[in-house]
Amino acid sequence: MNELTEKINSLKKEKNAVILAHCYQNIEIDEVADFVGDSLYLSRQAAKTDADIIIFAGVYFMAQVAKMLSPNKKVFLPRMESGCLMADMININDLNEFKSQHPNVPVVCYINSSAEVKTKCDICVTSSNAVDVVKSLNVPEVLFLPDTYLGKWVENQLGGTTKVITYPGFCPTHMRIRPTDIENARKQLPNAKVLAHPECKKEITDMADFVGSTKDIMNFVAHSGCDKFIIATEKGVTDRLIRDYPNKIFIPAAENLICPNMKWNTLSDIYNVLLNEENEIFVDREISEKAVNCINKMLEVTEKCLTK
After folding, report:
1. Which among 122, 124, 194, 254 could bridge 181 via Cys, Cβ 3.0 to 4.6 Å?
2. pLDDT of res. 302
3. C-alpha to C-alpha distance for 29 and 37, rounded to whole angstroms
4. Cis peptide leading into 71, omega within 30 of 0?
5. Which residues of the chain are modeled with pLDDT < 50?
6. What was the pLDDT predicted at 2?
């Protein structure tokens, strides 16, 4: 444990803080994190703690969700400029225009969206539960934003029972993966399982042996008898799998599968924001109430699915 890690852990206890690390973060941040995982999981775990302070090593929309689920806690983002490029592709004006083109159609938003956008949507989804949530609506069509590829993957999983009209947003990192990359990776690592995130293009998910969220990909590896994997998502997932499963072999599906905004956060940033309590996240109360309602509707569906 280096000196900076020790300082962070000491300051964390002193200030009764909890540190959250998304699994696209630089892997060394795990050394000081209390929870590591997908964005909604992290916010929900932090809400259950008695911490006074939440440091979210992630991007802006994630810190917003953490603040909305823990309104009485202080929430800080190590680097304020760490935004999600996909989430930034849609704002309220864009959403209103999208809705006006398809009146009276339920609106489903990916968790990767701003609090303001969530206020104008009917229900939220994550990449883990999107299929179940859209299916639960039992409607002939939905609007889905901002990720067109996740939306169309959901439509395909539902077998055409629901038409998913997608907003043209996307994740630039996942867009870097091409079919030739998968083909080349399979030549490099024969008999490997290809695990892909549903934010990838359809031609990539069609080639995959398994498609799921970062959490689902990690769970698949944990329970798979296979020992070779090609990982078609952000590099942070591959890094953690290599660390956690030293007896298995992992290679990224393509070079440079890095989300630069996620990688901006460093241990030094976390120490400084915890020490100085700068970069605090605030969400207007009215916006928060409406956005949380959108999230809670999703959680209700998820809980029902788990109890079936």
Report:
1. 254
2. 84
3. 12
4. no
5. none
6. 87
